[in-house]
Design a protein that fits this description.
By secondary structure, this protein is α/β, with parallel strands linked by helices. It has 12 helices and 11 strands.
């Protein structure tokens, strides 16, 4: 299981109340409901249903339940399944969150906004004896990065943009490593990954001076043949989030990185004035910047999110990327021989 790391520095494993009711709010864009989808796909046995405020809201496909109905089915917590820009809790969500507390559910949130800072939630939690749990809270004691070379091996997922598959790719690679008998840990760096893994480091909530140190603490010295598969965050080319990506790159010191990309996306999500970088640019930039703390860094391959494509078109796109880049390319969720080849190259 998890290689040990100092819980005072990197956060002890969470004991979250389960099962979950997934709250979607009024989110109409699937990319902004990635917490809900991630929990459905990687911890589905812990999810009893979803709560939405509108018929136009995206859906996970789980039963739509009221908080009382979810509690009757065994739910113990409502999880805010939205990951919007800025991590805010909208004012018009509050009545539904209070309803959940009144129904006997705790609330789990990965937003930047703190649950207890909202008076109505604080009062309802106290009235019902319920908990308000913020997982996007970094530990109190973090050190700045040292750049010291650590034992063990590390793989980091990086991306051409946000919300295109870095977490799913890291989880799939960690599973594939483990299936081959490789001593492996998935290291979560975002709120959804932390909820799935039961612990991790919320990198985008760490003060910038401590980003690299937080990544070092998350992935400590390990046995020479142990692999930490580190969930990537943001993009080095994102005008808002590149600082998080860079700190994670320097602190995780990856031996191997895998570039994640969604074919068909042309601009940074939500920022139409910024064109998406090419995969070649991402490989070059990641290699040059990553050499600061690991001169031996290399690209292990390309992970393509082909969820919007049919089987034949996905296979064609994967083959085209492999031929053009001279690297293994695969959709980790589709798996198959292409993904096996990517895993072979990462472990080589």
């Amino acid at each position: 299981m998890n290689a040990p790391f100092d819980p005072g520095a990197a956060g002890a494993a969470l004991a979250l109340p389960q099962p979950y009711l997934l709250f979607l709010g009024d989110t109409a864009e699937a990319s902004y409901a990635k917490t809900a989808f991630g929990l459905r796909d990687w911890a589905g046995e812990r999810c009893v249903g979803e709560l939405a405020l509108s018929d136009r809201t995206v859906t996970t496909g789980l039963p739509r339940l009221s908080p009382a109905e979810a509690r009757a089915k065994g739910a113990r917590a409502l999880v805010i399944g939205v990951a919007n820009e800025g991590g805010i809790i909208a004012d018009h969500w509050v009545a539904s969150l209070v309803e959940a507390l009144d129904a006997g559910l705790d609330i789990v949130s990965g937003m930047h906004a703190r649950l207890a800072d909202i008076p109505a939630l604080r009062e309802a939690a106290a009235r019902n004896g319920r908990r308000l749990i913020d997982v996007r809270t970094p530990p109190a004691r973090l050190s700045v990065g040292t750049g010291r070379k650590r034992s063990g091996k590390r793989l980091l997922t990086v991306g051409t943009d946000c919300a295109l598959g870095k977490k799913y790719t890291a989880l799939a690679i960690a599973k594939a490593f483990a299936d081959r008998g490789v001593d492996t840990d998935f290291r979560a760096t975002g709120q959804t990954g932390i909820m799935i893994a039961g612990g991790g480091m919320p990198m985008d909530a760490v003060i910038s001076d401590f980003e690299a140190g937080a990544a070092e603490a998350l992935s400590p010295d390990a046995a020479p043949d142990h692999w930490d598969v580190v969930e990537g965050q943001g993009s080095l080319f994102h005008p808002a989030y590149a600082a998080v990506s860079l700190g994670l790159l320097h602190g995780s010191q990856p031996d191997v990185f895998v570039v994640c990309h969604r074919p068909g996306r042309t601009h940074i999500m939500g920022l139409a004035d910024f064109a998406l970088p090419s995969i070649e640019e991402v490989i070059d930039m990641t290699t040059r910047l990553g050499r600061l703390t690991n001169p031996a860094i290399r690209c292990g391959g390309i992970a393509l999110n082909t969820a919007s494509l049919g089987d034949a078109e996905a296979a064609e796109v994967i083959a085209e990327h492999k031929a053009r880049l001279g690297l293994p390319a695969a959709d980790p969720i589709r798996g198959g021989a292409a993904f096996d080849a990517l895993i072979d190259h990462c472990l080589a």
